[in-house]
Amino acid sequence: MVRIKTIDNTVVPYMSAINLKFKIKKKWFSNQFFVTLNSWNAQYHAILGYDFLQRNKVVIDTVNKQLLVGNQKFDFEENSPTNVCSETTNCDISESDKNKKESFEQINNNFGEKVNVSEETFHAFNVKIANNITVQPFSTEIINLKVPKNISKNKDLIFIPKKNKLGYLINESLNVPTNANLFHTIIENNTNKVIHVRKNTIMGKLSTFDVNDIISPSESEIYQINNLNLYEIHKMRRDELLKSDFKLDHLNDKDKKDMQDLLLKNYKVFSKSYKTLGETSAVIPEFSLLHNFPLQTKPYSIPLMAKKYAQQEINNLLEAGIIEPSSSSYCFPVIFIKKKQNPNDSNSEPKFRMVVDYRLLNSITETFKICLPKISEIIKNIAGRNIYCVLDLKSAFFQIKLRDEDKRKLAFCTEMGNYQPTRLPFGSKNSTSYFHTLISKCLNGITGKNVQFFLDDIIIAADSLCALKVTLQAVFDRLIKFNLTLDPAKLQLCKPEITYLGFDLNANGFSPSEQNANKVTNFPRPKNLKQVQMFLGMLNYFRGLIYDYAGIVEPLVKLTKKNTPFVWSVECENAFNTVQEIILKKPTLKNFDPNLPISLITDASKIAICGILLQKKDNVFYPLEFFSRKLTPAECKYPSIRRELLAIYASVKHFHDQLLGEKFELLTDAKPLTEYQSLDKKPEIVARWLLYLGTFSFTPTHIPGSLNPADFLSRVVEENSLNVNNITLFQPNDKLSMQNISIEQKQDAILSKIMNDLSVNKQCKQYFLDVNSGLLMIKNAHKNKKKIVNRIVIPKSLIKVYIETAHAPHFGVRKTFEFIRHKYQWKGMYLDTKNFCEHCEKCLENKPKAKLTQTQMIPKRNLAPGQCIAIDVVGKLPRSTDNKNFILTIIDHYSRYLEAYPLQNITSRTIINCLNKYFANFGLPKFLITDNATNFISNEMVEFLDRLNIQHRKSSIYYPMANGLLERAHRTMKESLASMCESTFQWSEKLLFFKLYYNNSIHSVTKFAPAEIFFGRKQNLPLDSFFEPITVENESKYLKNIRNNMCSIRNEFAKNEEQYFKNNAPHIKGRKVPNFNLGDKVFVKNFSHPHVFQEKYKGPFEIIKILRNNNYIIKSLKDNKTMKLNVSKIFKQEQPRPNLRN
Asked: What is the pTM of this model?
């Protein structure tokens, strides 16, 4: 409601409102006037308020007694009451508003003539405090205030407190003065500081009061006021709404414009601030308490980083009227919870959510019970559509008004003061129930297949954009009718796939969302009962998506039984892995289609029963829902034939809603039905089951007992469906084809001019036209300047495409540049590549900043490729789509050629199988380098290597830099896979793509690609897939070139490596490597995770052997155990002085 206050803070009641046009001097104005009784003794028939001055930018010049409006000046008149349209003020009303004027005058006449009153009835007087007062933090005091002498005695007085900066609170009050010309009131200190108020401090204003001045507005007047306020709010909503508030970039231009027009047309349903928030009384919450004893708690301290936000939030809520100052005897603390920061906006200030801790109040609040809808039913009803929208209400609970008697019960305290809500707050016991009741009432009649909701999230689905807009408009109309508003920033509009309530919804059906699937698949192996219960709790949300769920998790459920010791058995491990694999594959179920035939498969085991509801389309069975439950101890004793019948009965009962009244096919072992139906005397429980099944219409179809339902379902789908999503890892971009390059070259202004000049035999530096393809090319000297290289000139329109393709594995600037310069060129190629890589968001997110080398660099000399290899394991990684958790990496020390195999486990047997594959492709090495992991030094591994006569070299323990080639490759691989994978499940698929690019990228040491050294040639990349050979060489010449290439590569390889270590010598200058001698006493770093008082080094040890590359074998002087360590992990014990020796 609009509240009109006078200068002394008195609220003026009014009857109606009217818009009038009037003229001052020669300038016309338009303003809104409020019609009121003259009981507040105004001297004028019309008064212009601060809103008029602000809107028209009026400046009041008190020195010259003038009003300044733009370039015009208006002189002040003498203080004499005048009529609204008198000649003195030169006020005139336009012809078009004569009717409004008459109605305005009529309203005034209806309330009688103006009453002559004394001056004191409309003047307010300053009120001072009678004595000094001190108010302790969070306490109240009674104070005495002086009544001014010029106010008539024996009259009731209205006290209006003055705004203050100290933070104390005094309420407006109606008072009767004492004989000592004083009156009493209460002062509250809601801050955490002591407040001192000196004597004769002005505390507020005082005026006389007449009971006859009180006017209560009628219902029609209140309706007019609310309508007026709503009109202004609608205008504010329209002004603050922008096209950019809606995320519609995924639509084409026409659909985007149509959707924007629809949304902007319904501006009344959107709000971006508290001021324009919706407000409704369609549902009125009631907070009935078990007792009326007030509850109070002290305010919680606010963190320093949240104080600025807290003050701003309180001010915003106060300004919007959502909260108000309170002197309630109820008081509950507030906490500020930090919101998740947007990863794309790391520089933004942290944001917080204000939450009142109503736990104490909730314990004495009577419950308002309602039944929330089942999430599974919502998902089933809405899934399987082509296009979706999700609407989110803005500050949803704040849109419901509270009763006056309930506001004080919900009061809260902060360091800034005490307040109480005027709208329904978050955190109170029945807030969710009342809000659900409101939305149910608002959307009643339009929910169903197209519209569903859960609390403040409304989802709309349709098969076409046209149908979606119709449904969207219907929802908007309902929300506008109830004056509810949406948050435009949180809308998800017109998307073919959407995440809602933990499920991904699309045209194919519904499946677990990636976020929830990650929680299940990345859940660590449970180590106690609590963790098992947490894991089963997460799984239970998706049990409808898992076939035979009860049977699979039965070993885990056993662990949760009372008095059962926690023993993680093989069965538990298998159940844990199986259910993670199922969720990892994101099983997708379709929603029910009443036009398709229905089938039901049932099965029973010794511990559980299950059923699958299916529908058949194009000779393919699609699952709709899975049902399973564990058998009770009594049911486990049933014979198998009765358990089969129980499975049929329980499954039909579970799918009662879909099967009743429909004809369906029952796919099961038909023996239970025929066996029991033929019995003259049936067990009572079986008779009841058969009687219940008799109410359904179905046709039993026999499935052999050896073929369980899961096998049947998988075989039917595999035999009849070829809808497999083939993954194309190396799919080239069509824009890279020779034909497209030729077209773009001719359309490029600069290149087309060069081509035209060449066609008329003009010389253009190194440019020439290729005879076979007609492409514009350029001759450049190779980096070693021993040969000329021909490269294709790339037009400006294709530069970004080529850089994107070369940067696909997200390598650094140098390697990306080398991929391109191999066969292509344009002006500024390196700078463009550098700029693109430096601004790649995926690289910025997944790559750490480079660090300087901190250890001595020792080159490893090898005679030829394949002579020495190193192996290591990366993981444990998130489980991939093909159920892999680890990567076995193998690198050739000479060429740096890398092989990587995804593995499910890292046992010695599994690693040996991978080594056999590697040896079959690349031959046997002479040396194999590993660390000291148990799977590398097991008896099985040692026997395998001895049999093949491969020398096994083990690196120093706790020194990964001893295997530096492989460790550096691991870093590159992790960064690349993290940047390429949109989902963590995809890493095993992208691993092949990474290997191709890695082995064909220029190595920083050798200056050659690993594949070029290993095979004598480079392999083609997607960047080169359309490249056609320009010249054709005969076979003998080609082989001769290969031999010459291999020789030159080896010669240049050695020079490059030597030069690399020479160039990097300054990085290690000054880092002295200590030298130890045989028999020296040393101490070793403690590699465990020590606590505060645990020793940081162990010893003493004695050096018994000196190895190469700064490695030593040492022996403990305590237990004679030996170990191999790098010099960086040991330090020498200095010899004691002669006087201290024994």
From this structure: 0.50
